[in-house]
């Protein structure tokens, strides 16, 4: 339980958010698949990423945390991965589960995969079905954890079309083919986040991309390298919105990854009238920028269609921004929110309504009537064990002018362990 602060003087200054979660997962996995030592700079230190590290150690990789900013992964090649001696605990991490399941199936590794209660409710048939089509042998509990990965034989050549707008599904299929030495063609008309395709060439993997189709030729090997992880834009999103909706604020978030498949939140907020400036920095394989935001008068818009995959994780904080915009905001085509760590359509509406917001849930999104100040007088809100809901509510509390108590704050450790420390440093 945590009493949340309000921002009486505005939010001013700068901060650095932790390393990108998606990139940290992939750097560890690809380092474990390489033959030699990969150095990772600015790896996210969070519960989800720790789940990936623990599983990779069980598969035979050596991972040495040299300092707060340097991690070394000693891999022994794809063929050096081994059958684990114990069931694999993925914790709360959907990325760990889906990507590593593809990797293990491709490598012909048998394993039993578990997760926490929340992860066990999330759909895994979205990877089981396409992996089965190419030769994987996986049993589940009606499409959910636990999984039994039996020794699989992935087709030597296959072509698939992504059926769900999920980068986790895409990466699971690509890793299965890569680990099996297959010739892979995968079409992604959703244009999901492309961290896998962007990073693999750093490990010496040849990838051809033509239009929506990704092609990885057969019999690729991964070479060790150095990866610098930029700040996570999904974490920066909370401060971006905080700076926009809190009066008398000007915030700079430094060294944020601004991969074009992840910057839908910037596009949407600018369309709503946000004052956001982007100062591009060096590109280490992923574009990086300092992002400065100033208090802005926002207005309602319609959000939907092809932009949704690039901001699906940021939709809870976008809903909060919309509550402070003039007019009505409609968010649609986001049914994927139902199967996140919580049903985020339900939990966002339930919790923001406690603070006086006018949010109506729909089957695939929200209708938000903005312009009503949020208020609180000893109001208890609940993150439902979902890190992004807990952090969104903490930003909402800044502008209530009253007392808000967050009944469960532990979930922020999943992606942003220093969140409350950063929050206290700004108010």
Q: Which properties best describe this structure?
A:
about 425 residues, 4-stranded mixed β-sheet, 12 helices, alpha/beta
Question: Can you walk through the features of this model?
Answer:
The chain is an alpha/beta fold and 427 residues long. 30% of the residues lie in helices and 24% in strands. The protein contains twelve helices and 23 strands. The protein has helices at 21-33, 47-58, 94-107, 125-133, 167-180, 195-199, 233-245, 264-271, 315-323, 344-354, 387-397, 419-426, and strands spanning 2-4, 12-16, 35-41, 62-65, 70-76, 88-89, 111-114, 137-139, 147-150, 157-161, 183-187, 208-210, 213-216, 226-228, 250-257, 275-280, 288-294, 302-303, 328-331, 358-362, 365-369, 379-381, 404-406. It has a four-stranded mixed β-sheet with strand order 2-15-17-16, covered by helices on one side. β16 (275-280) and β17 (288-294) form a beta hairpin. α7 packs parallel to α9 (315-323) and α7 packs parallel to α11 (387-397). It is globular, with a radius of gyration of 21 Å.
Indicate the low-confidence ranges by residue numbers: none
Radius of gyration from the alpha-carbon trace, in angstroms: 21 Å
Q: How many individual β-strands?
A: 23
Distance between the termini: 19 Å
How many helical stretches? 12
Structural class: alpha/beta
Helix amount, in percent? 25-40%
User: What best-fitting shape do the alpha-carbon axes yield?
Assistant: globular
Sheet of most strands: 4 strands, mixed
Q: Mean of the pLDDT scores? A: 97
Strand order of the largest sheet: 2-15-17-16
**Proportion of strand residues:** 15-25%
């Amino acid at each position: 339980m945590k009493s949340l602060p309000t921002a009486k003087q505005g939010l001013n200054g700068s901060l650095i958010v932790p390393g990108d979660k998606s990139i940290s997962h992939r750097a560890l996995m690809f380092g474990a698949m390489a033959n030699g030592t990969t150095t990772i700079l600015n790896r996210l230190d969070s519960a989800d990423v720790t789940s990936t590290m623990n599983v990779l150690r069980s598969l035979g990789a050596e991972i040495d945390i040299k300092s707060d900013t340097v991690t070394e992964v000693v891999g022994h090649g794809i063929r050096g991965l081994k059958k684990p001696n114990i069931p694999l605990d993925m914790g709360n991490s959907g990325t760990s589960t889906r990507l590593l399941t593809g990797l293990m199936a491709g490598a012909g590794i048998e394993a039993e995969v578990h997760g926490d209660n929340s992860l066990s409710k999330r759909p895994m048939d979205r990877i089981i079905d396409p992996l089965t089509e190419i030769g994987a042998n996986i049993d589940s509990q009606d499409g959910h954890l636990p999984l039994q990965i039996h020794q699989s034989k992935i087709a030597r050549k296959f072509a698939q079309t992504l059926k769900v707008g999920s980068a986790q599904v895409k990466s699971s299929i690509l890793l299965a083919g890569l680990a099996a030495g297959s010739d892979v063609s995968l079409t992604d008309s959703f244009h999901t986040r492309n961290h896998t395709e962007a990073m693999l060439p750093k490990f010496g993997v040849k990838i051809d991309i033509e239009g929506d189709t990704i092609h990885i030729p057969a019999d690729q090997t991964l070479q060790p390298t150095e990866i610098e992880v930029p700040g996570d834009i999904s974490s920066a999103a909370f401060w971006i919105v905080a700076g926009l909706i809190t009066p008398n604020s000007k915030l700079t978030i430094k060294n944020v990854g601004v991969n074009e498949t992840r910057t839908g939140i910037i596009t949407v907020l600018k369309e709503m009238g946000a004052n956001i400036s982007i100062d591009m920095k060096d590109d280490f394989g992923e574009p990086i920028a300092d992002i400065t935001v100033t208090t802005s008068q926002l207005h309602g818009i319609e959000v939907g269609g092809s932009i949704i995959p690039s901001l699906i994780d940021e939709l809870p904080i976008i809903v909060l921004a919309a509550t402070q915009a003039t007019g009505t905001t409609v968010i649609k085509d986001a049914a994927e929110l139902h199967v996140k760590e919580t049903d985020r359509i339900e939990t966002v509406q339930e919790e923001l309504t406690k603070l006086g917001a006018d949010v109506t849930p729909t089957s695939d999104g929200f209708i938000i009537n903005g312009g009503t100040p949020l208020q609180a007088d000893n109001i208890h809100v609940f993150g439902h064990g979902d890190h992004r809901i807990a952090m969104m509510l903490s930003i909402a509390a800044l502008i209530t002018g009253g007392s808000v108590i967050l009944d469960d704050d532990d979930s922020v450790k999943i992606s942003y362990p220093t969140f409350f420390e950063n929050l206290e440093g700004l108010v």
